[in-house]
Amino acid sequence: MSSTRLPLRLGLGAAAAAALVLGACTADPTGALHDAGQIGASLTVGTNPGQGNLEVCKVGPLSSFTNTPAGLTGGAFDLEDGCVLVITGANTATDPVVSEVSSAGTFDSVVVEQFVAFNPNPGSSTTLFSPTDVTTRISNDIGAVMTFFNTRLPDRGDEGCTPGFWKNHSVNAPGNQSDEWVTYTAGQYFDDVFGAGPHVTLITALNTGGGGANALGRHAVAALLNAASSVDYWYSEAEVIAIVQDAYDIGTKDAFNAAKDLLEVRNEAGCPLPANGVID
Fold first, then answer.
1. Are 246 and 216 contacting, i.e. CB atoms less than 8 angstroms apart?
2. How far apart are CA 93 and CA 7, in angstroms?
3. How far apart are CA 175 and CA 39, in angstroms?
């Protein structure tokens, strides 16, 4: 991969950034985990491997792919631990669809990635194991590298506590609910912790209503606290921070919403911490 930033799993990136990434499990298009090898794809968007170019890479055993438009490969190619240039020099907007249709490795579903008008400006973002079609159109301004995986990567957690939980289990919590925060404190500033975003405290971000960047703020703080705690969370702290930074790098409402959606689904996975948090 040509970027260490995880970007949005829509994906932009963490992740997500997140990568935005990521054992002995298979990631299906919804991000569910199964006992097998990891199957997924990441997208790095920018001017590399060249404006208007799409390069497809494979990590793992030999696989067969199809792509439309056919481009340089005639619509089909095989790839093993390497890369191939699929489309070059697109001088009009092009929406490639790449499908991994078979593999000599662990393989239980077709992986399809489609790039459809998302980031109209040159830049760089990576999305890993996207749960939905990746939305970036290549053109004479934008190139992209798609990387497919059929290999064993680190296990992903399946727990998460909501922004409401972390708000109500902080030093600011009402009554005698326990403070479950670790590593981070309510008084730290969001932009100091994430390297982007508003200059408000983490607890303020948790308490701020509304959509867009505000909603991302709530879920970003919850995600970071999940990652730092004993919760078996999907993302690492670094991945959460990368997802947030990618969203702010792009700076659009769509980017904020996409990043929020990535974190929200993980924050609502089920909280293993005390149900009531009451101190005996």
1. no
2. 22
3. 46
